[in-house]
# Entry
Amino acid sequence: MHLLRCWKFKVRCSTLALIFALGGCGSSHSTTRPVTAVDEKLSHPDYWWNQPAVVHVSCPDFQKLWDACKGELYVRLFPIDREQYRDGLLTSEPVISKQFFEFWRTDAVDVHDVAESSLATIRRTIHFEVSRRDDGTYDVVPKVLVERFQSTERRLTAITQYHESFTGPRVSMDAPDESGVPFAAEYWYPLRRDSLLEKDMAESIRRRLGQ
# Structure
């Protein structure tokens, strides 16, 4: 009799747990907006580059300010991509971001950024925009774009093809989607601007300038 009561109690508990689980699943799918429905403008790097600056550094000497920015790229292991003196634009090449064991790198400022780049393929690109003020001094604005690597899944039609999931040829992506626009098998998707790294570089530039 005691065993029968215990069994009935366990059945009731399991039934209640199942009801709560189904209720939770139902509520999670109550929304009609898909997860992938995001604003199209957020997928363009220019949108993030054109966002207002969060910090700036001033200096009366253009060359000294320019050299400080170049030194900042050097110590953070970012190769220089473009040096446009007339436009006041200094850019770096995209660099894969720091992982948790790369303690000597300083391109990921906080713990969240390090964890993110350790779990996924993340890269950063740095722009320094220098402009002349009315009083004759110069301002530099550091901007950092964070991008994530995206890759489509490979189609496997037989169990013998499992070893080609990472080493085999890429799946053909020439066919367009429903909108008629072809899509790439591998691409970089912009996530955000790295305001923490921008502020950290600004402080480092000020120290280089003796401010």
